[in-house]
Amino acid sequence: MRINPNVTADLLASLANAQEEQNKAMLQMASGRRVNTPSDDPSAAAILVQNQAQSSQADQFLRSADSVQAQLQTTDSTLNSVVLALQRAISLGVQGANGTLSDANRASVVGELNGIQDQLIGLANLSFQGQFVFAGTATQAQPFVADATQPSGVRYDGNAGTNSVAVGDGVSMQVNVPGSQIFAATGSDMFQAVHDLITALQSNTGIDTAVTGVRAAFDHVTAQRVFYGNAMNQLQSQQTYLNNDKLLLSQQENAVGGADLAAATTNLLSAQNARSAALAAAGKISQLSLFDYLNY
Amino acid sequence: MSSLFGTLSIAVSGLLAEQGALNVTSNNVANANTPGYSRQRPVLLEGDPVPVGPLLFGSGVVLDSVQSVGDPILELRLNEETQQHSQLDTMVSAMQQIEVMFSGGTADIGSQITNFFSSLQQLSTNPANMSARQGVLTAAGNLATAFRSTVNNLQSQRSNLDLSVGQTVDQINVLSGQIATLNQQISGIENLHQDAGTFVDQRTQLIRQLSELVDVSVVKSDNTLTITTSSGDALVAGTRSFALTTQTDFSGVQHVFSQGTDITAKLAGGNLAGIFAVRDQTIPALRSDLDTLAAGLATALNTAHHQGTDLAGVAGGDLFSPPPAGGVDAAANFSVVITDPSKIAASSDGSAGSNGNLTRLLDVQKQAVTAGQSPTDFYAGIVFRVGSDVANASAERDASDLILRQLGDQRSAISGVSMDEEAANLVRYERAYQAAAHVITVVNNMTDVAIQLGRY
């Protein structure tokens, strides 16, 4: 059999192959990724698209949770101030119910209660990042406005709308309670209760009943406040879950598309070996032929 | 009886034949690195015997012909594999450029879809906030840009491929013209019963080049050669060549015609087939996928957007420009309609602070709005298809590479010039020449003796 006398083409092809393998391994090591283009591993590339969507969604859920939490905290501490103000109103009422109090003393109690009423209106008009938190979804205008035509002296301009924010895949949280429900619910309207207490003190009749009314309002606000406490708890556990989820997703990303550095290093080394072997072979190919041994 | 002069003429025939053989060896050595060269060998024949009385004496040697050594079947195999190889090579390099657009950069469509929904999510935590609203419009604009620039890239890729159609056809016509000319020369030589090896080598080389450009089928009859495309459209018939022409169709791409017939879809190998596969199949299929995605997204988001009200309590209009009927070119026309951030219909109850309608918009991300799949899943499917198209074509190309190399090895084993062989032949011819020359000396001496006969 006649042998191919010219092996240069084969040699060059082996050299090119080794070079390609070497480049691939180097790219993997440099980028840290096994899948650099979809053709490197089409199904892994498709999984990575979904993985990337999920992890950036998880990032966004975390950002949403952060801003919701800031709003919930501010709201909760404002409600705390409301509760303290109502407590003060109750003790002022109890003080005013004491029959030994002079008219002048009662007048000064009334004065302080008027101040508390104004403070309560101010607190109920809390705005967070330009939005009125207790206005339901009508967050652009002050929800509670002093209005003498109202029985309680305060008018509610907000609505009963609530907002929910998604903080996880399929997990959505109500983030506000309308002010009408917290402060102005029928039977436990705090503005009405304080207003009634002021009227009772001024006329010095039915003070005890009025104090009971304020107590009811106090109980109601305290009960409503539980919503915020629960929401913050829920948010915290959701944040923990999201952080774990992100970790899992990035582990998955690594498992699917990350470079196996050990394998890449091995590949690089073996490609280098193959290349040096091919080069050595190329260098050793005899340049001699029978011509060199014939004497003329 | 034989004569001294008879012996002399035998020796001279040896001198001439060996010199001719030496000539062939010299030509082989000279062409050792000439692409497409097939080694030649001298065909030496005994001279016709001369009857002398009852005896038959040889009359020396004749250098009958110079033969090129080759395997025509192997050449055909090489042509076929070359067609396959260059088709795949063209496809792979074109598709690798397409693949880059789907390689998961930060500006690709997949990331921009996610970014857009993230911006809606961000707005839902503070629905009346103007900067968050602006953020949604910016993300929507980026999404539209991603669609449009991907389509633009695909389109310019298609134009570039189209540009090379004309150039390739020109090359084909030049080659088939050259082959027709060679056919004429070869049949002239072969009619004289000579070996037209050198011209055949040249023609084989030209057919090889033609195979890189287009699929050819070679039919040899007597001493003419007919080349057609594999679907039977003539390129060369004997000494005539048939030029291919190009014509631009209604969609602005070039079609290839052979004597008035459109053969674009019939080509099955070579660069042209590779160009057409990507230009007429891969890219249009991708564009149609992107159109489905863009149309599905725009329609679903617009529908959701209509259900809400904006900051002023006015019902939401279109967020994105509505896709054209049938969704054709939806990706190329994907654009944001709203420019005023307050017009984003986030509210579901008419109040500015409500985020209820954002939930509807966000739900689109999980809904089967594009061919029964969520937008992200559908996009992941596109990435998978692009990747596997490239991976499959590259694998086939690599396999074809290997086959082509093995065939090249086989060809070289048969037709390649071996220096050792040539050196050995050189020795043989030289020695034979020397011996023949020696015979002449001996005859000379003997003639001398004969002339001296009878002298004192």
The gist of it:
The complex is a heterodimer of chains A (296) and B (456). By secondary structure, chain A is mostly helical.
Write down the CATH class of the domain at 82-251 in chain A.
Mainly Alpha
Low-confidence stretches of chain B: none
Average pLDDT of chain B, rounded to a whole number, is 91
- Let me know the largest β-sheet of chain B: 4 strands, antiparallel
Count of individual beta strands of chain B: 11
Strand content of chain B: 5-15%
Structure description:
The complex is a heterodimer of chains A (296) and B (456). Chain A is mainly alpha-helical. Chain A contains seven helices and six strands, in the order αααββββββαααα. In chain A, helix 2 (42-97) packs parallel to helix 5 and helix 2 packs antiparallel against helix 6. Chain B has a four-stranded antiparallel β-sheet. Chain B has a three-stranded antiparallel β-sheet with strand order 9-10-11, with helices on one face. Chain B has a two-stranded antiparallel sheet with strand order 1-4. The mean pLDDT of chain B is 91. Chain B has 456 residues and is an alpha+beta fold. Chain B has two domains: 4-69 and 417-452; 77-405, no CATH class. In chain B, strand 9 and strand 10 (254-258) form a beta hairpin. At the A-B interface, helix 1, helix 2, strand 2 and strand 5 of A face helix 3, helix 7, helix 8 and helix 9 of B.
What attributes does this structure have?
heterodimer; A: 296 residues; mainly alpha; f41 fragment of flagellin, N-terminal domain; two-stranded antiparallel sheet; B: 456 residues; alpha+beta; 2 domains; four-stranded antiparallel sheet; three-stranded antiparallel sheet; 11% strand; rod-shaped
